[in-house]
Amino acid sequence: MSMVLYHVVHVPWQSPEDVKELLWRRHVYNNAVISLKEIFRQELQQAEAAGKGLEAMKEEEDAELNRLIAENDRINREKAEARARKEEEEWKNTQREILNEIDEALQKQHQVAKEATAEVRDAISRSRDFVNEENLEAKILEALEHPKVYDFAIDRLGKKYYDPAPVKYQEGVPTRQKGRLFDRTLGVPKASELEEDKHSEELSEASKI
């Protein structure tokens, strides 16, 4: 049984240009680290020379951190207050819009109720002339005393021409309408009307004498 006593790492092949670039970057990194160490060493020496040791520097760093935290808290508090004011203003606007919509809806309902009330009152006022069991006799007498005839013609001016003229009580056999019996040419007087006009003219002439 064979045992592996060592492991050989086979580095993948790289081009010479890449190797040079990586080597240059390694030197730059090492130089930067060395420079930072030297800067920190000089700062420590200056602090010790000024009577400030590591504890004093730590206290300054803590104070700086506390100052930054306080500044951050102040900024967060101001932003929170501004956000609260904005939300309150938006809520007031929303409430105003809701109240306006409610007011408009109430006004519409009031207008609808007003119109419905007017219609009901109008219907009640018109119902006074309706025929019912109580006023049936009175309505019959009223119809007999004031007859209405719907056999009439109308000219362009709205004047009605009755054929025959309405009578209070029907006498004899009622006239039956046949075809165009009651039709007449508007604007052309009938013979009876001509006779009446002639008779009225004779009376006027006699009165002048």
Can you tell me about this structure?
This protein is an all-alpha fold. It is about 65% helix and about 5% strand. It contains four helices and two strands, in the order αααββα. It has helices spanning about 15-50, 55-125, 135-145, 190-209, and strands at about 150-155, 160. Strands 1-2 form a two-stranded antiparallel sheet. β1 (about 150-155) and β2 (about 160) form a beta hairpin. The longest helix is centred in the middle third of the chain and has 74 residues, at about 55-125. It is rod-shaped and about 150 Å long. It is found in: Mitochondrion. Its main location: mitochondrion.
Q: What is the compact description of this entry?
A:
Helices cover 65% and strands 3% of the residues. It has 209 residues and is mainly alpha-helical.
The number of helical runs is 4
Order of secondary-structure elements:
HHHEEH
Head-to-tail CA distance between termini: 172 Å
Helicity range: 55-70%
**What is the beta-strand fraction?**
under 5%
The main sheet orders its strands as 1-2
Report low-confidence residues grouped into runs of 5 or more.
none
Query: How would you sum up the major sheet?
Result: 2 strands, antiparallel
Radius of gyration: 58 Å
Overall geometry: rod-shaped
Mean pLDDT: 79
Number of separate strands: 2
Main location: mitochondrion
Protein name: Small ribosomal subunit protein mS26
Keywords: Coiled coil, Mitochondrion, Ribonucleoprotein, Ribosomal protein, Transit peptide
GO cellular component, one term: mitochondrial small ribosomal subunit
